[in-house]
Amino acid sequence: MSVTVAKPGEVRHNYLNAGDTVLSWLLTTDHKRIAILYLVSVSFFFLVGGLLAGLIRLELLTPQGDLMTSENYNRVFTMHGVVMIFLFLIPVIPAVLGNFLVPLMVGARDLAFPRLNLASWYLYMAGGLIATWAMVTGGVDTGWTFYPPYSSSYSTSQVTLTIIGAFIIGFSSIATGINFIVTIHKMRAPGLTWFRLPLFIWAHYATSVIIVLGTPVVAITLLLVVAERVFRLGIFDPALGGDPILFQHLFWFYSHPAVYIMVLPAMGVISEVVSCFSRKRVFGYHFVAFSSVAIAVIGFLVWGHHMFTTGQSVYAGMVFSLLSFLVAVPSAVKVFNWTATMYKGTIDLRAPLLYVMGFIGLFVIGGLTGLFLAALATDVHLQDTYFVVAHFHYIMVGGTILGYMAGLHFWWPKITGRMYPEGIAKLTALVIFAGFNLTFLPQFVLGFLGMPRRYHWYPEEWQMLHVMSTAGAFLLGIGFILPVFYLLWSLRTGALAGPNPWGATGLEWKVDSPPITHNFEQTPIVTEEPYAYDNHHEPEEVFSGTGASTTKR
Amino acid sequence: MKGVQLLPEQASTFASQVDLLFWFLVAVTVFFTVLIGALVVYFALRYRRGSTASRAGAKETDLRLEISWSLIPLTIGLIVFVWAAKLYASAYGPPPENALEIFVIGKQWMWHVQHPNGIRENNELHIPAGRPVKLTMISQDVIHSFFVPAFRIKRDVLPGKYNVVWFTATKPGKYHLFCAEYCGTQHSRMIGWVYVLEPADYEKWLASGGEARPYATASGAGTMAGVSTASLKEAGEKLYTQLRCNACHGATDGQRGPTHYGLFGKKVKMRDGTVVTADEEYIRESILRPLAKVVDGYEPIMPSYEGLLNEERVLQLVAYIKSLESSTKVAEVKP
């Protein structure tokens, strides 16, 4: 196996210092540089979506809609959803961590189609700028779900422009998905069989399949809304002879699996991190790997549980309900396996592992509250209330974002060559965990009481719970701002990382930090199982060192 | 700031049953969250680097464990599925025969209610306790959703199609009515109150034409649209004559159109061989889009009334056609 380690004092070439002109970044086909482009762009859109969330929570401090008009409130929550889902949650882990790591983990020099990879970033930016343009020139007020006939025949906001933005972003997802599938199939290093792949790769493979199969459906569906809106083609609006429920079927056929597009990559991160900091192979590797595939397959068959109150037949409701309970099983299997991985491990409580523990707790709550919504009788009451809002934030923030934070900290030394500051990173993980729960636990109660989502005004007796939620949101906001500062600070002042500061297994840890442009000086040959921590030494002994301080403190 | 509310009221026969399932699920959620949370924290401390706890016998996988932690969630899931599905089927199955029939029209941004005897209400719904109530609902514009948290009942109100929901209120009182499907600018103001009255109070309310107010109206939350002089059926009869429906639809099946007498609830055979039950939805569709389903033996010649009748008027016609029983004597038919 090729091990490239810097000698003390030597400044080696790496992908970051391979060129410092703006063009060297904008025209790069290096998957690692494209990952950085994505990192900067998704962070920007996360900031936008977060500020919009702050406005929502400020407005809901009081029951009377007094901070802004209803028109503006509706635009704010719609844009919060559109930005967070299409521009942040869906791309965040695949396009940043996946882009950076998939070639490194399979022992390839780049993704299969480097130029397609760059094109995907340009498509993402084009879609993102169009959506931003729509936001600045009036915004959109349909909710991120774009339900017709409101979206097609009634709304006077920038529906068409926003949909065109989302449509274009869809192609960027598809490009990334195709790139991952081909790379994982065709570019694995010699000896890297399917069952020697890191679970991060399994998760990204399953995600890519969903992206490639699902995204075209939502893209065409949204385009049909535009066709109805602009050309008055009767597709969804009954006044034109259409069927509004047809839209909901097509929309959720993608948008339910989209939840798994968001959370499966996070699950991949969790497997890597929990294994490394327990210094133990992931428990039940095959079960964790196949549960990703099971989620991808069954996830395509449960969309009707978003439609139990539409007048869908009782029998159709039962089929979708049953399938929704089935899709919960593979997620449960993963959680149990991660927990068992920690059993009798040698646990190093680093910030990434704190995020993983937070992920497990929040994902368990998010998953189990999903059962309330898969069950027909309780869903009828809770559908379209704050219970649903709380549930999916537990999955998307508690799951996807905590998974991303775990991964970002874990691979930060690989990406930048520098260590993040451990103490404040741990503190931040705790702040995010506390702020998150304070924000969203009260929303479960609100939903059970009957508070409908997307309400600008609400009955006075619910104000206390909203005040708690808003307080939590600001704590959560602080938790997300802190890493911006300490991670940027670490770029100059962080300790030099060395190739493998965690003593982790996996090919990405066998190359320099940051890696050279072509990743490997020789094609690596894989001879061992994944997560072979038994064969590995403790981190501090692994160092050949770059002459700078190491990670132990 | 009013006091904190932590539990919703239970005011329908369905509510306590839903809550039982809800609390069971809460128990499951708390149990597994505490279990996993405690294990993760315990393992992190007990097996922290440097601790002397024995690591002997650590495994990489265990088939029996994998099978049991697949089967346990599956079993719990199946129990909840069956429980919830049975409950749902009982609540969302066909309404009881004796149900009180009321019509609801949703429009941006108000609820319009029509009682069979002609009483009309906006953003208010008066119903008796202890008797099943069936709501036949339609939207005049976008999708709305009829949601009464105290009843644990929600049903989308769609444009172009009747949706039916029924429930039996148990506890007299005043309950929130919300629109639960986002419907535009004033979505959060598309709210109202459901008044559940003791049967005697309800009779009084009916007799007074909706003027008797056993409960004070919340400030501006609802306004009475007043009482039309005719019942829904009578209004429909007038419209029926005015539109000359009876020119083609006579007392018996005629040359140009089938009779409406005894139509409601009957199974009707179409030209393409399909058999359709003549319910409210079928009658509405036949008025607005007559060519969608043409009765066997007839030519597709009926003109469409789409755009000529609003939902309120269609409801009146439906109510009238429903009332035409086959036993009605031919002599009563005025040509």
Please describe the topology of this protein:
The complex is a heterodimer of chains A (553) and B (335).
Chain A: H1 22-26, H2 31-59, H3 70-106, H4 114-136, H5 150-154, H6 159-186, H7 199-231, H8 244-278, H9 285-298, H10 314-342, H11 351-374, H12 376-382, H13 386-416, H14 422-449, H15 463-493, H16 539-542
Chain B: H1 13-46, H2 63-92, E1 100-107, E2 110-114, E3 119-122, E4 124-128, E5 132-139, E6 144-148, E7 153-157, E8 163-168, E9 173-179, E10 192-197, H3 199-207, E11 223-227, H4 232-242, E12 267-269, E13 275-277, H5 280-288, H6 311-323
Parallel strand pairs in B: 1-5, 4-10
Antiparallel strand pairs in B: 1-2, 2-3, 3-11, 5-8, 6-7, 6-9, 9-10, 12-13
Rg over alpha carbons of chain B:
27 Å
CATH superfamily of chain A: Cytochrome c oxidase-like, subunit I domain
Query: Biggest β-sheet of chain A, characterized?
Result: none
Count of domain modules of chain A = 1
What is the domain total for the residues of chain B? Answer: 3
Q: Residue ranges of chain A: pLDDT <50 for 5 or more in a row?
A: 540-553
Give the helix/strand class of chain B. Answer: alpha+beta
Largest interface: A-B, 95 and 87 residues
The dominant shape of chain B is elongated
String of helices and strands of chain B:
HHEEEEEEEEEEHEHEEHH
Task: State the strand order across the main sheet of chain B.
Answer: 8-5-1-2-3-11
Query: What count of helical segments of chain A does DSSP give?
Result: 16
Shape of chain A: globular
Specify the CATH class of chain A. Answer: Mainly Alpha
Give me the CATH fold name of the largest domain in chain B.
Answer: Immunoglobulin-like
Description:
The complex is a heterodimer of chains A (553) and B (335). With 553 residues, chain A is mainly α. Chain A has one domain (22-542): Cytochrome c oxidase-like, subunit I domain (Cytochrome C Oxidase, Chain A), CATH 1.20.210.10. Chain A is built from 16 helices and no strands. Chain A has helices spanning 22-26, 31-59, 70-106, 114-136, 150-154, 159-186, 199-231, 244-278, 285-298, 314-342, 351-374, 376-382, 386-416, 422-449, 463-493, 539-542. The longest helix of chain A is centred in the N-terminal third of the chain and has 37 residues, at 70-106. The two termini of chain A are 30 Å apart. The model of chain A is unreliable at 540-553 (pLDDT under 50). Chain B has 335 residues and is α+β, with helices and mostly antiparallel strands. Chain B has 3 domains: 13-43 and 62-92, no CATH class; 100-227, Immunoglobulin-like (Sandwich); 232-332, Cytochrome c-like domain (Cytochrome Bc1 Complex, Chain D, domain 2). Chain B is built from 6 helices and 13 strands. Chain B has helices at 13-46, 63-92, 199-207, 232-242, 280-288, 311-323, and strands at residues 100-107, 110-114, 119-122, 124-128, 132-139, 144-148, 153-157, 163-168, 173-179, 192-197, 223-227, 267-269, 275-277. In chain B, strands 8-5-1-2-3-11 form a 6-stranded mixed sheet, covered by helices on one side. In chain B, strand 6 (144-148) and strand 7 (153-157) form a beta hairpin. The longest helix of chain B is centred in the N-terminal third of the chain and has 34 residues, at 13-46. The radius of gyration of chain B is 27 Å and the shape is elongated.
